Amino acid sequence: MTRKVADCRKFPSETNCSLTISGEEDEVLRAASEHAVSVHGHEDSAELREQLRGMLEDEKATA
Predict the structure, then answer these.
(1) Pfam families given for it (predicted)?
(2) pLDDT by residue (tens digit) across 11-42?
(3) For residue 43, which of 14, 34, 51, 59 sits 20 to 30 Å off, Cα-Cα?
C-alpha cells in the first residue's frame, strides 16, 4: 500500500504551519482533519475530509 502525505507547507496559513503527516491514507486523513480543526480553526465535516483527501500526495520512496 502506498503511504500518503499531507503537508501544510504547501498551503498558505496565518501561522505558516510546517507540519507534515505521513502514513496510510485513513491515518493521515484522520490526523490531518484533527489538525485542521484544532490548529487552523476549520469546522469538522465530511466536506473538510473530502477536501483533505484530494490534497493528499503519494509519499516518495526513500532508498
Answers:
(1) DUF1059
(2) 877 888 999 999 999 999 999 999 999 999 99
(3) 59
d(CA 26, CA 53): 9
pLDDT at 13: 79
23/43 Cα distance (integer angstroms)? 23
Q: Where are the domains of the chain?
A: 4-58
> Nearest to residue 28, comparing CAs of 54, 62, 61, 5?
5
User: In Å, what is the CA distance from 41 to each residue of 11, 15, 33?
Assistant: 15, 11, 10
